[in-house]
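Side project, low priority. Logging it here so it doesn't get lost.
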Amino acid sequence: MVTPAPSLPKDFAQLSLTEAAELLAARKLPPVESWYPERSGDSFMEIRADGSWYHEGGRINRPAMVRLFSTILRREGDGSHVLVTPAERLSIMVEDTPFRAVELKSEGEGKSRKLVFRLDTDDLVMAGPDHPLRFGSDPDSPDPRLHVRGAIGNGLEARIDRALYYEIVDMAPADQNDPPAIWSNGAQFPLVDR
């Protein structure tokens, strides 16, 4: 049985980076990458572009249910998404990205900066080598995303909300990179992908 992620013990804005790191280290997700059950089907679920989850056209309003389902979500090699358990694999439609980054905490500057994002599922993700940021190749139409889990390049991502994107852009000049870039957890991320 998979248990849903607990809600954060206190307001994200009040967490120190040390507390956020402890919560990240304590988080255990099911090993969905190793589950390949024979039984498959359709979950009749979808995740809309605004991050809301639906089942058979009705919105799922219980955050605990969304958190539970998000723990068994996987992206397949062909780009499709599934909910997977050891017993079955069910397709799920994802309109944009399965997660949204809704809050940001930054500590440090330059190469010592660390960025921790809170997702709409209350999961915490620290941007870095294992969780890269990308912003798209068109500076006039940014496409900010954070890698959450799975294979980099074909894993699960979070759309970074516009307000957070502008916070990141405001931090980048302070890091004095040319072209503009932001550092997090020892990795540098250009604000325009090449």
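Brief comment: The helical segments are 17-26, 63-71, 162-171.
Revisit when time allows.
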